Amino acid sequence: MTTPDRVIVPLDVPTREQAIELLDLLPEVTFWKVGLELFVSTGADILGILNERGKKIFLDLKFHDIPNTVAGACRAASRYNVDLLTLHATAGRSALAAAKAAVSIAPSPPKLLAITVLTSLSARELAFDLKIPLELPEYALEMALLSQESGIDGAVCSPREVRELRRVCGDDFLLVCPGVRPDWAVKGDQSRTLTPSEAIAAGADYLVIGRPITGADNPREAWARICQELAAV
Ligand SMILES: O=c1ccn([C@@H]2O[C@H](COP(=O)(O)O)[C@@H](O)[C@H]2O)c(=O)[nH]1
């Protein structure tokens, strides 16, 4: 896999037309993410379009519910021929195991990724608003380990925690990092960020990079700058 293939670009737009515009503008992108905004706005249509174009698909719907409901949603999602699918680690051990069992019967099951701690959250919010008594890096690791023990294939984590998760969870556990910002891009609502080259060097398998590319004045130029940065890693 070449390094640009390790960058997943989110289609965080509200319409099918805007999504197709991005696909046409960035034909070099091999891996696209469909998240809540596009899926809730337009339904599963876009997944068929991505499949027809031979793209890899990360369906990032972040399921978080009781085990029976999570299992049903994962079973349904696994019929769309997607490569990656998310749920929250905080749904708990039974829900994680039920999700794994549900997708396992699909002809080509997606890999399941558990969200550890959203990359928008700061240590302060985790402690004071969410009342989590562990330090943020320790909590992210605990969520990854719980997911791994429950049979989940990998985790979504901030690039700031990826080195430790890689060390403890091993090379077979897939680690996907949003919260990636080139040094020329604004952070926006992301709290725990590193640059693309730092995130890869720290052990991420895949990076999710959205607005620095899709929100740029010239998305093609932004994509090329990121590929250039990663070529030097
Ligand atoms: O912890 C998480 C989990 C998922 N995301 C998603 O990744 C992209 C990031 O987009 P940017 O524009 O690069 O910020 C977005 O679709 C999120 O829903 C995340 O950011 N953090």
From TrEMBL:
It catalyses: orotidine 5'-phosphate + H(+) = UMP + CO2. Pathway: Pyrimidine metabolism; UMP biosynthesis via de novo pathway; UMP from orotate: step 2/2. One of its GO terms (molecular function) is orotidine-5'-phosphate decarboxylase activity. GO terms for cellular component: cytosol. The keyword Cell inner membrane does not apply. GO terms for biological process: 'de novo' pyrimidine nucleobase biosynthetic process; 'de novo' UMP biosynthetic process. The keyword Oxidoreductase does not apply. InterPro entries: Aldolase_TIM, OMPdecase, OMPdecase_AS, OMPdecase_bac, OMPdeCOase_dom, RibuloseP-bd_barrel. Residues 6-226 form the Orotidine 5'-phosphate decarboxylase domain. Substrate binds at residues 12, 33, 60-69, 119, 181, 190, 210-211. Its EC number is 4.1.1.23. Keywords: Decarboxylase, Lyase, Pyrimidine biosynthesis. PANTHER family: OROTIDINE 5'-PHOSPHATE DECARBOXYLASE (PTHR32119). HAMAP family: OMPdecase_type1_B (MF_01200_B). Homodimer. Belongs to the OMP decarboxylase family. Type 1 subfamily. Catalyzes the decarboxylation of orotidine 5'-monophosphate (OMP) to uridine 5'-monophosphate (UMP). This is Orotidine 5'-phosphate decarboxylase. It comes from Pannus brasiliensis CCIBt3594.
